[in-house]
Task: structure prediction
Amino acid sequence: MTATKNTILGIVILAVGCLTILAFVYRADLQLIWLTIRLNPKHAFGDAPPPTPPDYTDTAHWAALPDRKDPADSTPRGAVDLQTAAAADVFFIHPTTFLSRDAWNQSLDDEATNRMTDQIVMLGQASVFNGCCRVYAPRYRQATLAAFYATGDNGRQPLDLAFQDVVTAFRYYIAHFNEGRPFILASHSQGSRHADLLVRQEIIQTDLMHQLIAAYLVGFPLDANNGLAVCDSATQTGCQVTWNTVGPDADDLFVSPTNICVNPLTWRADTTRAVHAANLGAVNLVSDNTHEIGVADAQCLDGRLYVSEIRSNRYGARPLGRDNYHVFDYALFYVNIRQNAEARVDTFLRQRN
Result:
C-alpha cells in the first residue's frame, strides 16, 4: 500500500510539475485566453443603449490634430515633427484600447481609454507619420476586445457601430480638413479592419483615389479584396501595405496564404528575408525616444511577417500570445516606416506635378 501511495504521489508531483512548466512556457497564450474571458461584457449588445455618437466638430473627439499639441507630435531622437510644413495628410485609425467588460463599445468620455489611446498609440504609432504628413486621428466608439471573439450580434454589431463612426470621421475630415490635399490612410489592428472597409466603400472608384498616396493597414489579416493594389516597391503609390509580426513559435493566429504581407524592411510582397542590418531603427517611444538599429529581421511567409530574433529587451510584451509581436507592428520597424512614408509622399508629389 505504501508503495502504491508513493507511486500515486510521484505521479501527482510529476503532473503538477509538467503543468507548471507548460503554464510557464505557454503563459502568454493562457494570458490571452484569460484576458478575453475577463473582458467579455456581462450583457448582450442589444440589452444596453450604445454610447453617445461622436461630434467631430468637437476637437476633444480627435486623438490627434496637426494644429494642436498632442502625443502624435512626438519624434525619436534626431527626427523632426514637420506637420506645419507638410504637403500631405495622414488619416490614422487607432487599434483597440478599450479593455472593459462594462460595454461593447467605448464611450468617448472614457478618460482612461482615451489616455491609453493617446499615450500609447498616438505616441508610438501615429507619430511615425509626422515627418511627412499632418496627422488626423479620430476617436471613435471602438469595439471592446471581446467583440473579436464573440459570435452573432455580440461580435458583428459592436464592430459595425465602430466602423460607422470611422466613416463619419473620414467624411468630416475630407469635407472640413483635407482641402484637396494628398493623404495617407494608416491604421493598426481594429483600426485596419475598419480602414479596409473604408477603402472599399469610400475611396475605391471615387475621386479620392487621385489623392490617396498609400494605405498602411497594419496588424489585421487582410486580403486584396478591397480593390486596392498591393505595394511591391518602396515608392509605389496608390497601393496598400500590411503585415502581422510574429516569432517562430507563434500560434496560427492570422495564418493564411491569402493574407497580404508586405515586408517593411524591403517593401516587397515576396518571401525574401531581410536581415537585421536592413532594420534602420526600432523605436519604443512609450519607453524613451532612442532608436536601436538592427533589432529585428523580417520575412513574409504564409501571410504573416516572421521575425527570427528580437535583439533588444524593450519589446517583451506578448498580450496576444507566445511569440506574437502584434503590439510592436509599428515599433519594431519605426524608422523604416517613417522614411518610407516620406519617400512615397515625395514620389506622389513629383508625379502629380
Remarks:
- Helices lie at 2-25, 27-38, 111-124, 153-178, 190-203, 334-352.
- Residues 102 and 346 are 45 Å apart (CA to CA).
